[in-house]
Amino acid sequence: MDDNEDLDYVEEDYYATLNLPRSATQEEISKAYRNLSKIFHPDKHGNGENKQKAELMFNRTKKAYEVLSDPHQRAIYDSLGVKGLETEGWEIVHRTKTPNEIREEYERLAQEREERRLQQKTNPRGNISVHINATDFFSRYDDEYYDTGLLPSIEVSGMSMSQSIEAPLSRTEIATLSGSLHLQNGVGSGNFLLSGKRLINKGWFEVDCGAGNGPVLGAKGSRNLTNRIFLTGGTTFHFRPNAIIPGLSGTMAIQLDKNTLGYLTYNAGLQSSMSTVVERNTEKYHCNVTITLGIPHCYIAAAYTRKLLEQGLKLRVALKGGTFGFLSECGAEKKVSKYSSVSATVCVGVPSGVTLKIKVVRSTQTYLFPIHLCEEIIPAAVFYATVTPLVTYFVLKKMLFDPMNEATKQKNIERVKETNSARMAEKRREAESAISLMGALFERIRKDELKRQGLIIVSALYGKFSDAENVSLEEADDMGFVHQNPLVIDVRIPLQCLVKDSQLTLYSSSKSELPGFYDPCFGEEKQLKIDYEFRNNSYSSVFSDTDPVRLPIVTNEAEQ
Questions:
Q1: Is 235 inside any structural domain?
Q2: Among 213, 263, 316, 428, which residue is least crowded by beta carbons within 10 Å?
Q3: Is pLDDT above 70 for 5?
Q4: Do the Cβ atoms of 283 and 276 come closer than 8 Å?
């Protein structure tokens, strides 16, 4: 059920290449470059195969240094990555611009490129609602003159469909064509609307024309009065056979604080009303309170949504009461893929009864299924409306969603591997070249650390493994034959070469970009296991791929 995500281009991490934090000073950058140059400079490796390996590593190190030592290029790289450095048009950017100004300039250049493709782009949106009457399940109608049968009946009492497409005419002008069809209890209706929108200074203006139950003309617009206040208003004219029915609407919005907005809305026409809304939206929750006075109904409503971003889950409760009666809602929305989500909401009210609403969102398409279970509040209906969606979701998740997501994930990983295969092979060659050039340095550092009883890397393995205690460079297959583990590589030599004054420091970035490392299992979660000795004591530590590393990690008792 996952979506085909854009292929990722694997970019260079220049900070990891030099083993530096992103906050490194110019002095630290120069020092790191000098240290690596002592290892990889081609002049230090004669004229044979080692010189070719040294040239490969030296060019990579030099490129990282050139970018990070130039404040202009470093600001672009920090904000936008390697692709930002490759964007056309940077030659016109003044070299004294700040990182924020550089990002704005990048967005401007990207917008100009996007403008060339506007004529070919649309933004289709669609909604389909199917209203289902299942009241025969819990409050069956018995008629002595009509045979109701053994099974309860389920009816489709209504259906509605709407679709819209946008056609950008320029950077400031958009045309929209939309239409809808409605069917309820055998009676149908429909309409279409053509809109033209133009962005103006501090706002926008729109003109509408359409037809449904007679021609419709309208106009609306919005303008920012200050940084915290904006107004939106519009008027419509419905032309009926014997009358012209005008409509008027207006909204004033005020930003009360960073996360809170207040709205005051007035509508005049067939259904006149005035409403006040206070809405608060943060990373963890969203809530709003609405008070509406109008014809034919007045009501008060409140809703609260809890966002569990790590789980891709939203939990929502809502209450609404007024002249129409009372309604309470409780539901959950689960993100099942990058562009898809499913939600279930149980609605209990008077006089509406019990309704279960199932909604599926797939990109810009929305499918809604309101299922009316009973016209009265029956505990059994509430129970099944709550439990059935949960059981159904977990069964589908286990049997359908998870296998499909895993298959799609692996497919995307393979596609990315294929796209970056040349570079991944080059990274492996670079790592092998780096290790072969580190031999003399490795022996010298290890000898010095042995003399002072300092930090000795006994074993270091990097890659994918679930059991850190039994991870090995070799593994046995089902037939008992031992072969090399393709998901794990030996990084003992490059780590020992990074030890300085009996300390090893790695920063918060993927270890696969360090000299002597490469990614043995692209797209998988990786770990780094280090077995080491310090002060004649043995230790073992395991780190995730992007965790910072600071060794030795010893207790006070061990130090004593």
A1: yes
A2: 213
A3: no
A4: no
Q: How far apart are CA 180 and CA 212, in angstroms?
A: 9
Answer with the one of 217, 252, 287 that is the final residue of a domain: 252
First to last CA, the chain: 57
Pairing of strands 474-476, 353-362: unpaired
Residue 55 has pLDDT above 80, yes or no: yes
- Residue 440 is assigned to a structural domain of this protein: yes
Where would I find the beta strands (DSSP E) of 450-487?
456-463, 474-476, 482-484
Indicate the pairing of strand 340-350 with strand 488-490: unpaired
Of residues 104 and 407, the one with the higher pLDDT is: 407
Instruction: Give the total number of structural domains in the chain.
Output: 2
**CB contact at 8 A, 321 and 300:** yes
181 alpha carbon, distance to own chain's centre: 33
Distance CA 71, CA 63 (A): 14
Q: What is the pTM of this model?
A: 0.63
Decide which of 200, 219, 252 is a domain's last residue.
252
User: Which has the closest alpha carbon to 517: 426, 425, 457, 431?
Assistant: 431
CA 549 to chain centre: 28
**CB-CB contact of 157 with 133 (8 Å):** yes
Q: Tell me what the mean pLDDT of segment 494-520 comes to.
A: 91
271 close to 296: Cβ distance less than 8 angstroms: yes
Report the SS3 class of residue 386: helix
pLDDT of 346 reads 95
Average pLDDT over residues 513-538: 90
Largest CA distance in the chain: 104
Q: For the chain, percent helix, then strand, then coil, each to nearest 5?
A: 30, 40, 30
Contacts of 56 (CB under 8 A, 6+ apart): 429, 430, 433
Structure token digits, residue 409: 């994930």
Q: Which domain holds residue 434?
A: 420-559
Encode pLDDT of 75-108 as tens digits: 878 877 777 676 554 444 444 455 566 666 666 6
- What are the structure tokens assigned to 312, written together? 């891709």
Residue 468, domain member (yes or no): yes
Phi, psi of 60 (to 5 degrees): -65, -45
CA separation for the pair 432, 426 (Å, rounded)? 10
CA distance 280 to 287: 5
CA distances from 528 to 110, 124, 290, 492, 550 (A): 38, 46, 53, 11, 13
Average pLDDT, the chain: 85
Tell the residue number behind the tokens 């016209």, with chain if given: 375
Distances (CA, A) of 508 to 15, 16, 23, 516: 10, 9, 11, 17
Structure tokens at 5: 């995500």
State yes or no: pLDDT of 418 exceeds 80.
no
H/E element, 101: helix 99-115
Task: Yes or no: say if 453 and 538 are a contact pair by the CB < 8 Å rule.
Answer: no
Q: Dihedral sign, CA of 12, 13, 19, 25? A: positive
pLDDT score of 102: 62
CA 234, CA 223: separation in Å to the nearest integer? 12
- Ranked by mean pLDDT, which of 165-169, 307-311, 365-369, 395-399 comes out on top? 365-369
Q: Which of 64-73, 83-92, 143-152 bottoms out in mean pLDDT, i.e. has the lowest?
A: 83-92
CB 61 within 8 Å of CB 37? yes
